[in-house]
Amino acid sequence: MVLQRVFRAVIMGPPGSGKGTVSGRIIKTFGLTHISSGDILRNNINAKTELGLLMKACIDQGQLLPDDVMARLILNDLRTLGNTSWLLDGFPRTILQAEALDNAYSVDSRLSSRWTHTASGRVYNIDFNPPKVPGLDDVTGEPLVQRDDDTPHTVTRRLKAYENQTEPVLEYYRSKGVLETFSGTETNQIWPHIESFLHRKLSIHSKKVA
Length: 210
Ligand code: ATP
Ligand code: MG
Prior knowledge:
Monomer. The protein is 50% helix and 10% strand. It is of the alpha/beta class. It has one domain (2-106, 151-205): P-loop containing nucleotide triphosphate hydrolases (Rossmann fold), CATH 3.40.50.300. Helix 2 packs across helix 3 and helix 4 runs parallel beside helix 5. The termini are close together.
């Protein structure tokens, strides 16, 4: 008999990198529960909850919300899931958040994405092929992603927040030996690699606890 233990993973990547699309495919293919911090916050804003009203200005300016607020919000959500396999998207975003998560759960895998968003048909990569102005299409000057918090100014802030606050989290996970990085220029090119990695990972994972 194969005992299926829960599988817990974190997906990371710069704003507009296609994380949302890949997360969707992962949860559909592997049946993990998707926890997206951005979606939870946007739901709070739409429902005009106290948290949503309090945090909207901060989000619209492209700033990260306080670590203690985020940690409480996400860890509470994870607690209600109990013994379910999950994929965390958008959290942790800072070393402090990563430590808060580690104190509560042992995470099995961190997937880092560096593939790029192609809404305009053009391809950028923050590391080796960045747009001339961060977050803006080179030709039209338009933002690369379209959302309430996607004004050029805010996109720049979010990309800076990723570089300054979230990239150190990648190093944190790399030093723990649990980081898996996928690079490429579009989601369809990267997806097969992620899929076969997770197939391998999940089958080893269930054999180990069989
Ligand atoms: P994309 O989803 O397109 O990759 P993104 O990652 O910049 O873009 P979200 O994850 O949707 O955006 O988050 C939107 C905003 O919500 C962030 O800019 C930030 O203000 C806030 N936020 C989301 N998650 C966190 C977090 N873990 N810590 C602090 N702030 C957060
Ligand atoms: Mg997101």
